[in-house]
Amino acid sequence: MNILAFNTASTSGSVAISRGSSVLFASYLDVRITHSQRLLPRIDSGLKQCALTMDDIDLICVANGPGSFTGVRIGLATAKGFCLGKEIPLLAVNNLELLAWNVSGSARAVLPLIDARMGEIYGALFSADGQELLASCNSKPSAFFDKIDVPVLAVGSGALLYESLLQDAGIDYLLARPHQHLQMATTLISMALSRENVPRYNFEAISSLEPCYLRKSQAEIMREQNLKKRGTHE
Prior knowledge:
Shape: globular
CATH topology of the largest domain: Nucleotidyltransferase, domain 5
Order of helices and strands: EEEHEHEHEEEHEHHEHHH
Helix content: 25-40%
Structural class: alpha/beta
Radius of gyration: 19 Å
Distance between the termini: 61 Å
Largest sheet: 5 strands, mixed
CATH superfamily of the largest domain: ATPase, nucleotide binding domain
CATH architecture of the largest domain: 2-Layer Sandwich
Strand content: 15-25%
Oligomer: single chain
CATH class of the largest domain: Alpha Beta
């Protein structure tokens, strides 16, 4: 099975291609150009280096958020375009689950945290064997940390940014290693290969799939605020 995976849910971007259980191509970029500029050239370059075309791809994996609104939208739109155009199955993965997978095998519960900007985080909590203890959510760090009452391994950009608040909350925590905080497309491939059943192509499911934003965009928030102000003055 040939898998194409990509993650554009953060400012960095990652693309990977595998054949069977072997990763043939992996690219990670954290440069100041948009995903719309770099994603397709990276995919094209990877396919050429692997001597493959989209007709050879059996499964596409994409990180479906939470994360950058624009990045998530670009990644999902690209995945849908490929899948619907070539009738390729699609596996969409929650980015918090991806981060937890980076440290699978931990003896502690896993606390994946993503910097959501504006003083907030996207967070979840998983047991050491991967069971969801706290569902994915958008929250102020302190409010979310108040719910943590077990020793954890913290991973992700939110863990790095808000480590001092983890300490203030009295949480028994360890930080993941530096490379484990990255949201890599190779992890998406590992997650896909671990599944007992490979997703089948499903036009309706792919067409209707929505990004996992977990909160409203800043534009939506501003629009609602403006509407409330207008209503107040009418």
